[in-house]
Amino acid sequence: MSSGTVELKRKRLGPNLSEKHKSGPPIAPIFGWDAAFELPEIVPGEELVAYDMSGQPISGTGVDEWKCNGEIKEQKEETERQREEVQLYEARQQPAWNVSSSIGGRMINADPVFTQDEKFLILANRSSISVYSTSNSLLTTTLIPKVDVVKRPNARIIAYCISPTNPDHIWVAFADGAIYYINWISGEGADEFWTLSSNGCIHMTVASMVSGGRRRDVVFATELRSDKAWRITANELSLPGSKLPSASITIFTSTQMVNYLKSANEGEVLVATAEKSIMLGFLATDKYETLDKIRYEFRVFDSSAFISAIDVRCSIPHKEDEEDEVVAKRKGKKQKQKQKPKPIVDVVVGDAKGSIFVHNDLLRNLLNKERLKQESNISLLPQKLHWHRQGVQTVKWSLDGAYIISGGSETVLVLWQLDTGRHQFLPHMAATIQNVVVSPAGTSYAVQLKDNSAMILSTAELKATSNVAGIQSSVLAHEESIEVKVQRVEDEPLAHSLFQRTPATINPSDPSQLLVAVGQEHELHPIKPLALKRPYLQTFDLKNARSVGRQALTRSNITNINVAPGFGRMTEPTVTHMKLSFDGKWLATIDEWTPSEADLEHILHAGMDGIDERWRRREVCLKFWQMGQGEVWELVSRINAPHSFEDAAGAGRVLDLAADPSSTRFSTIGDDAVVRTWVTRSRKRDNVVVRGRYGTPLKNWDCHQSASMGKHGLDDNDRLQPRSVNGCVAFSEDGSILAVAAGGDNDGLLHLLDADSGTIRLSLNKMYEGHILQIDFLGQDLITLSDKVLLYDIAANEMRLSFGLTSEVTKLELSQKLEMLHLAVDPKSRTFAVATPGYAHDPKNLKTLLNLRSLLNQCSHLVVFSPKQRLPVFKQIFGTVITALLPAIGSEGFMFLDSAAEIYTCFQQGTHVVTAMAQSTSALKLEGSDNEAEDTMDISEDEDEHLGFLPGEDKKIANNPNFSFNFEDDETPVVTQQKLSEVFDIGPSFALPPMEELFYQVAGLFLGPPMTPAT
Amino acid sequence: MDVHRCRFVPYPQSTINVLAFSHAYVQKSQEKKVAPPRLAVGRANGDIEIWNPLNAQWHQETVIKGGVDRSIDGLVWIQDPTETIVSGANRSWIVGKSRLFSVGCTTTVTEWDLENGTPLRHASGNHGEIWCLAAQPAVGIKDERKSAERQWEGQNLVAGCTDGALVLYSTKDEDLQFGRILVRPSVKKAKIISVAFQNRNVVIAGCTDSTIRVFDIRNGSTLRTMSLGSGPKGGPKNIDVWAVRALPDGDIISGDSTGELRIWSGKTYTLTQRVKSHNQDIFTLAVSNDGSIIFSGGKDRRTVVYKQAGKVKRWVEVSHRRYHKHDVMTMASLEYKGMSVVVSGGPDASPTVVPLQQFGLDFQRSLPFLPQEAPVKGAVMGKKRLLMSFWDREIHIWELSKPHLQRPENLSEGGSSHNRKLVSKILIKGEANILSADLSSDGSILAVSTTTEIKVFHLKQRRSTDGEMGFRVSAVHTPHSFSSGARLVRFSPDKNWLCIVRTDNRIVLRRIVSSASGIKFHPYNSKLDRVDRKTPKHVILGGLGSYDRTVTQTAFSSDSRILAVSDLAGYIDTFVLLGAEDLGQASIDCEDDTISSTESSDSGSDSEEEAEKVKLTYGQYWTRNPSAASLPKLPHAVTVLSFRPTTAPLTNGNMSHTIPTRHNPNPLPHDLPHGEDRLIVITATSDIFELEVLRGSLSEWSRRNPPAKFPIIYRKVKDLAKGCFWDLSNGRERFWLYGAGWLFMFDLSRDVSPGEEDSNAPKRKRYGKTECSGAGGAVSKFQQSNGISRRMAKVEHETPNKYEDLFARQQRGNSSDDEDIVPLRQTKKAKKEIENGEESGNSEKVENGEAAENGVIGNPEPNYWRTFKYRPILGMCAYGNGEPEVAIVERPLWEADLPDKYDGDQEWDHSGV
């Protein structure tokens, strides 16, 4: 690798960047829906093949011809006509469905950034930068660096920092080596980037350095080299309008991955870490006109364990501290005149084993040690602080160097007072502390937690002044955390590589509320994922893209010392199913807990069967919750082991839970092949109805009736193996029919029950193939998801649609299918959607093939069907795994959550999308410059052709940059809290403008479309 | 080989109350002016152990035994002023005498006579019980020139009392006298519990009323009272200042019951910093000589290390470890000839050596808490195997059943009492504790010595009323000369002779006459004199005096005709028994002046007058081996001395009888014994030598196998050898040697092979214990937990990386320079050995050990074998002449009852966040 300057050209993305890619989820570069749904043979014109019961591909012009009883008319192939039809169909239907840009997402594990005036806190997720106000913790603006997802599939933000030279700008580094320089106030520069390295960038930091009479930002980045080595480069990037060329020089190379980099004292000191090594570099040249003359000298030594956090602090020595320099000079030759004194570099290192090491004045100590051999050894030894049981996730110096702030998985913020050896704790932080940053003035700490939230604590009283929380569902880890390298007792991984589905539901009474079951493990290892434990319920506001509540649904261990005597972790129960009643007032959850194998090792000596005992000790609870005061779900009834076996001990699993769409009723099916229906009963004591505080009668939940489906493969022996069978239950829309499928039989037997009496009214054969995965009703159609997707018209008693899934999907294990195949029915748009997993493998790329088992290469297919059409109305492939698929209750379409914790809405155009509101903040607060307005104008012009389809759409509004992306009617102006806070939060109450003026400002917000530029 | 694994001996461990080095630091230029440092360990049972650091060998040289209700609570060494003799161009020094003082829980200060192991003087005054003691600092080198006109340069003692008095004791004129009371007892009765000198005139006293008081000893005035404030909420109001020390720059540090280290300015006597480093009381402090490192130890078992850091030179805690299983009560530091250690001790009884300057880079080392001299002895009485052990004033004798009754897993079960039986328990009258005891090889005679007397018991088997076999113990009438006490008593193998080493190191042999009626002693002492080694007078007068001539080991040859004794200096003296036994010659004196070869160097303190004459007892007499003087002086003290047993049957017949004639009615025999005279000697550096005593030279085998040729695994062993036994059955020549944690077997019929460890190892000159700072070996790169590696690379882009050693060791005398990276490139095997520590040694050897126990060491390849499975070994004894049957007496610390801790073992068990 030559160290010479490399010309870096800033690439500007043209305006012709496809708008669909701009905001949509990352799209895997493969071949479309063929990958998900099997193509029996590649016959032109026969891309979509329906199967009959015997597995023969059938083809027909209309769905009427498919009959479930096997009476299938042979049809001549009419390929030509079909192809035309398909093309016609696609041309007509495809634009009608769209996928919104995402909301939510997970904050990346990088230090939050305060702006210079501490008014804003900048956080980033995978693809965007969010600026939050520190005073009211509201999202101020979102910067989305433009990324061509097709060309740069693995572009994600890895580091960002405020430019020290120009604090209006922010540097953003992407994992693929792209660097953006964005004005975070105006959003300028989001479409231009430099590429530092084609092999990928690992970390970046920026220092403002003066040389040659010029102050400039120097970007230090650690990069992957092509030869399995890593390097640190210094780059001066030519800013727009600057005539200076960009320059780059490698200042350090290493055979270990340099994963962290930090500069101090205007770039004079650099600290980097790689595995166990600490690299301390200092500027060895005083004069460097251009960057290629810059020289750094590094000292590299090892620490005791893998380094998980580091911070550096620099101060300029006082006069008397230069004494030993003078002494040394007197001793040595008098060759140099007054040299610039070396700064005092204090380094604090946190390692994966929980130790914190404080190296005081490290640089001079190391240099002294080199020069004068006979120094006391102990002066080099760092101070060791040990309180953390597990890896130190973050460690920071306080501004004056008297304190160290550290945090880790103990959920305790520890403040170490160095001079006295005392420490102070701030416990119960709700999740692992991932990053802590001290604000520029030292008045507050920003704490980023692993549950996808960040908060600002005041330094003085350690009280939270603002809090930002995102959706807390699990994500796939992109890089292995350093903590993995410490040997600990590990939880058992899942038997098969899968991403567990996230129990989620949308509140029908408030369609902007998404309820998600979340847990503490937020990052999932892509190769050997652990079984997720989700004891919490998070309520997520889709409109504002923020978390509004979190409560425990089961017992949880977050703030306990979560170590069992055998050093394993104590596991928590996990919520497996969650459904809301039709009116959104009741929540039914099912949680399950099984003791881990290690916990039962001791009884194996007594000759007991370990697996049997594990299932015997399983706990399954069905819980009913009511929305109570204070927006918290209150537990009303808890039914332990709702599906226990009569003949054997231990709680049977609950396989499925269904809510009646018409009345307050739930139904479950369990391991014992019994369907139970649960209804409310008034709670009575001595035949008097018990009333609550507000005179409302209290209710209990009871099993209304149960119907046994016989031992359909739900054999006693089988229940020892996890998930060898499945059962499904679904209510029809009017609540009169309960469809039940149980067992793994190949005959595909499905029963239709009278929901009120529980008697089997009709049993249907061959309703599914292989294991039944999910069933649901869409009007009179019953949809089953198994190795096939079948649509069966109950009223007409005929099969309407039948699609086979590809062998890639059908050959998966049952547990994988259960967790990764999704079916959702949207009664509003009369459509249903199926999500299936798939591998985004590129035959040309062998490397990906080798890693096939990794969940990182998993993609998912989303297909939306309409019962009225033979062909799907929408299909798309996503580079992430879909973990929950829901009907978007408030609007037509579907909502899904993926493995990057992002929420997308798949909607029919022209409908109102609830998540769209969360998107429109960027222009609300900040007066965009003309430049920006033009840019967005371009974008909206691109959209014109889509918008043209919409009847009654006002072009002016479409042209409005503020509303370029949400299809709002102008009758309902949206006044967000940000707007209001802008009016009111301008200063202390005595400094407010006259009341009259305030009124007009508020009224102005509600009257007309705000800030509409005159056209 | 049959093994009795015994864990039933309730040998008591005793709390270490105080540790003191005779010199904490010796400058290079001063090395000739001081005696080599010794460590005195004062224990709660009144014992004072004298340890020689000896280049990190840590040899427990002598033990001054305590007595009933005695305890050592304070120990202080001083050195009398060194005098310079200028004779022409040469300068030599009369090294000042090193003197050791102690206090117990009394009002008395005691000075000890190290040569005799007895108290030398006492002094006391009219004040309360003395709690702590400190010695005035010696005159520094800087002061030396200035103070030419000063009247006296010695070190006085200052004692702090429980009634709040501070008392000065004068050590002038090689005496110890009550000086004066500096501070009268206060009204408030604040105890003075710690005392230290800030300089020669200012003394700092830590009290129990939250104050530290500073006094000038010249006039007794209080310079300042420094208050620590009130104790933390919920605790006692007053803070106890358990430890005070002065740093070289005059600053004062204190450790107190709140667990805080406080640093006070030595000029203004104000608090400059406080560091909360302990969860509970700090009991003790230690400071490196240059004042750059502080150690503290306390009740929370922590040993905390502090250094000065930062631009304003504030003290920071470097790290803490729990080296002890109980409180850390006391600490002492030593920096001498490359050693740089802090020794700490507490109720877990093991002195623990922690590296000082090399802290974090070297391992700590726990010295054995069991005595160097194994207090066990086995004997075979008829078919019974007896095991005798002694401690304090008790002697216990057990009978072990045949080992074939035991299955290997039962061996360790001390609780199963069926395979051993306590047959006798003897309590010695008097105050003094037992110094030495011996059981004759047939178990019939037991000799016990204290500092005041020697007692002999006759053991007879008898059947008790309930049919159990028991013992009848009857005291044997002892001659008058036995009433003066002895350092060592030893029976000859044929139990005809009792060898007595007096406390003043004179050697006396006494013929035992056993008859059916009982046991009597021959009326005459055979006094033996060691070769006068011509020690210069100024050496005897100064330093430790003739302490190094203390006899610590004796050995009889198996035919009882050769006696070897060795002393701490490494001299071995041998004596031979001449003449054939002729019981008819009983009690006939032989007074032949011509033969008298003994020269008495004593100034006849002994009351018996016949000492000057050579007397025949039963036709035999002991005399010095003619070639004794030609035996080489060994480099170090001897820890194990043993004659090779004779394999040929004992014959007296070939010894020519001297025929009495008229002129010479009792002719003196001249023939030297013909039996086996090869003597195995193991020194304190674990070097093995074999001497041919009668020839006065090293044996052939020993010449071929110098210590450096021994396997590395043996040379790496740190604990000193404690004893040995032999296996000469079936033509073998096996020599078994054990230390506190190891058991080695060497086959003396073959030369030592360096062993497999050496074959592929890179050459290295120094290994393990020789290169360390005085504590354990270097911490390997993989185990370091101090946050910084040993090496640092200097990287400038596009220039080759340079590596620098960060922690170069301080050079020791003859060491070469490039060895510092040795720990980094050890062979895989050695590395593994180090990493796994003794654990791997243990697991690996178990099967080996089983094999050896069953006597099937089939593979003759390496001529040595070892196990680390038994530990800590109190002692071993072998039974029988054939294939040996041994009893290994272990005394694990976890079986010894440690005093209760007020605090839980591990705080994290019951604290929550």
From TrEMBL, chain A:
<dbReference type="GO" id="GO:0003723">
    <property type="term" value="F:RNA binding"/>
</dbReference>
<dbReference type="InterPro" id="IPR015943">
    <property type="entry name" value="WD40/YVTN_repeat-like_dom_sf"/>
</dbReference>
<keyword id="KW-0539">Nucleus</keyword>
<feature type="repeat" description="WD">
    <location>
        <begin position="385"/>
        <end position="426"/>
    </location>
</feature>
<keyword id="KW-0698">rRNA processing</keyword>
<dbReference type="GO" id="GO:0045943">
    <property type="term" value="P:positive regulation of transcription by RNA polymerase I"/>
</dbReference>
<dbReference type="InterPro" id="IPR011047">
    <property type="entry name" value="Quinoprotein_ADH-like_sf"/>
</dbReference>
<dbReference type="GO" id="GO:0032040">
    <property type="term" value="C:small-subunit processome"/>
</dbReference>
<keyword id="KW-0690">Ribosome biogenesis</keyword>
<dbReference type="InterPro" id="IPR001680">
    <property type="entry name" value="WD40_rpt"/>
</dbReference>
<feature type="region of interest" description="Disordered">
    <location>
        <begin position="1"/>
        <end position="25"/>
    </location>
</feature>
<dbReference type="InterPro" id="IPR053826">
    <property type="entry name" value="WDR75"/>
</dbReference>
<dbReference type="Pfam" id="PF23869">
    <property type="entry name" value="Beta-prop_WDR75_1st"/>
</dbReference>
<dbReference type="GO" id="GO:2000234">
    <property type="term" value="P:positive regulation of rRNA processing"/>
</dbReference>
<keyword id="KW-0853">WD repeat</keyword>
<keyword id="KW-0804">Transcription</keyword>
<keyword id="KW-0677">Repeat</keyword>
<protein>
    <submittedName>
        <fullName>Quinon protein alcohol dehydrogenase-like superfamily</fullName>
    </submittedName>
</protein>
<dbReference type="GO" id="GO:0006364">
    <property type="term" value="P:rRNA processing"/>
</dbReference>
Automatic annotation (TrEMBL), chain B:
<dbReference type="Pfam" id="PF00400">
    <property type="entry name" value="WD40"/>
</dbReference>
<dbReference type="GO" id="GO:0000462">
    <property type="term" value="P:maturation of SSU-rRNA from tricistronic rRNA transcript (SSU-rRNA, 5.8S rRNA, LSU-rRNA)"/>
</dbReference>
<feature type="repeat" description="WD">
    <location>
        <begin position="275"/>
        <end position="307"/>
    </location>
</feature>
<keyword id="KW-0853">WD repeat</keyword>
<dbReference type="InterPro" id="IPR001680">
    <property type="entry name" value="WD40_rpt"/>
</dbReference>
<dbReference type="GO" id="GO:0032040">
    <property type="term" value="C:small-subunit processome"/>
</dbReference>
<dbReference type="GO" id="GO:0003723">
    <property type="term" value="F:RNA binding"/>
</dbReference>
<protein>
    <submittedName>
        <fullName>WD40-repeat-containing domain protein</fullName>
    </submittedName>
</protein>
<feature type="region of interest" description="Disordered">
    <location>
        <begin position="589"/>
        <end position="610"/>
    </location>
</feature>
<feature type="region of interest" description="Disordered">
    <location>
        <begin position="753"/>
        <end position="861"/>
    </location>
</feature>
<dbReference type="GO" id="GO:0030686">
    <property type="term" value="C:90S preribosome"/>
</dbReference>
<feature type="compositionally biased region" description="Low complexity">
    <location>
        <begin position="595"/>
        <end position="604"/>
    </location>
</feature>
<dbReference type="InterPro" id="IPR046351">
    <property type="entry name" value="UTP4"/>
</dbReference>
<dbReference type="GO" id="GO:0034455">
    <property type="term" value="C:t-UTP complex"/>
</dbReference>
<feature type="compositionally biased region" description="Basic and acidic residues">
    <location>
        <begin position="793"/>
        <end position="807"/>
    </location>
</feature>
<dbReference type="InterPro" id="IPR015943">
    <property type="entry name" value="WD40/YVTN_repeat-like_dom_sf"/>
</dbReference>
<dbReference type="InterPro" id="IPR036322">
    <property type="entry name" value="WD40_repeat_dom_sf"/>
</dbReference>
